[in-house]
Each structure stands twice: as structure tokens, then as C-alpha cells.
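dude i think i finally got it to work??
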Amino acid sequence: MNWNGHVAIVTGAASGIGAGIAECFAEAGAEVVVADVNERLGASVIDDLQARYGKGLFVKTDVSQATDCKKLIDETLSAYGQIDTLVNNAGVNFVKPTLEMDEADWDRVVDVDLKGTFLCSRFALEAMVARRSGAIINIASVHTVATLPAAAPYAASKGGVGMMTASMAIEFAPFGIRVNAVSPGLTDTQIWNDIQDAAEDAEMARQHWMDNIPLARVQSPREVGNVVLFLASEQSSYVTGANIFTDGGMTIQLTNRERFASKSLQGMAPQD
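look at this
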């Protein structure tokens, strides 16, 4: 696919998965709008993309605020005249027991992860409907189908993103607009570093997660970006309403991979 002239917005692109997605678009030749609330990190990402690919525009955006989301879309249209792809990646998360949460904790996650995805989509869709073309890719999570204790607002938000993706895919298909989701598992970002740092035994924590991922490794942000590029491209022209899991198989297994193998494979040796 020729990405020249393709305009992609990536929210939450100042670090982590979002930065990896933005890099994939810029490397392919697309014009990339990096949206993030962190101006310092966002400017750093743009400086890097400009130096390497000559691409990139930064728009400071708090996706939980409708005025910021509309400004993001307006500034993109002013700079490039169109929006071909919107990647709703911005998100926050924390681990806290439900009985220790307050309303502000809940609102912080839901406002960014769920409402922010709606708001950016809402304003971008106006421009896409006018052109009868476009692709929206929502970065959801493995938490759309499986979750952990003390993650109620995150699980609720990402589950909502999954169903919002399906609803919008149906609603906007007549306008030639495709809406899909990507659900990453563990990814090599600051969150993965925080998981290990918070553990009493970092190596034991790492091994625990590797044992629960059939591919036995953590993915890179660019591996998520590669799937996003596919969903934004003409190669996925008949794909809409999908939720693609980039989780190394984490959500498909019934039991711990290593423990199961150590017991079951002993009886699978060829018989004379």
C-alpha cells in the first residue's frame, strides 16, 4: 500500500504502545498526528519522527475533554485536510481493591479509556462521513474477555470499548468507514517495568507471566503497531467490527503452559 498522503491520528502516542504505533505509520510514509496530554514527551516523539522520517505533528490533547478532542480533529484537518485513520490508544490504569476506590478513581480511568475513545471517534467520524471513507482502530485490551482482581474500572472501560467498536462498525459501514479493535496483552512498556519493580522477586514475577503466555515473551509496541497498520490499510478492506488479540496466546489457554506440559507430555512419547 502507498501510504503517501495518508493521515493518521494516534492518541496517547507520547510513549509506550502509542509511540510504537506512530513510528510504524511514519516509517510507512504516512503523515502522523501525535496526540497526548504530556507535552514534553509528545514533543520528544515528534522530534524523533521528524528527524528519521520527516513526519509528525503534535497536538496536546486531554481525551477526557470534549473541547480538546474537537481541537485535535480541527487542527489535523487544518494541517492536512483529511483524516484517514484514527487510533484511539490513550489510556490509564491502576490496581486498587474495589473497596478502596473512590469516585475519582473510577472517573479517571473511565473518562480517559472509554469516554475519550468515544469523544475522539465522535468528532473524527464527522470528517470521515463527509468523505465516505476512514478507519478507526481502538486499542482495547485482553481485559475485554478476561481480567484480574482490583481492575474493575479498567475492565469495565475496555469491555465497553470492545462493544462500542462493534456498534460503531455497524452504524458507519454504510459510509465506507471501518471500525476495529486491537487487544494487546503484556507489552514492553513502562507498565511492564512497573509490574516487575513492584514484585518482591522480579525474576519470579517475570517467569509467572512467561508461563502464562504460550509464546513465552512480551511483545514490543511495534508488534501492536504492525497489526494497527494492517487494519488501517486496504489489505483489511473487508474487516470491520473485529477485535484482534495481540497477546501471544494469553487469553486462549485453559491452564498454565509449563505446568501442564511437564505433566501431560511425559505420557506422549512414541510407543514401540
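The first strand starts at residue 7 and ends at 11.
im so relieved honestly
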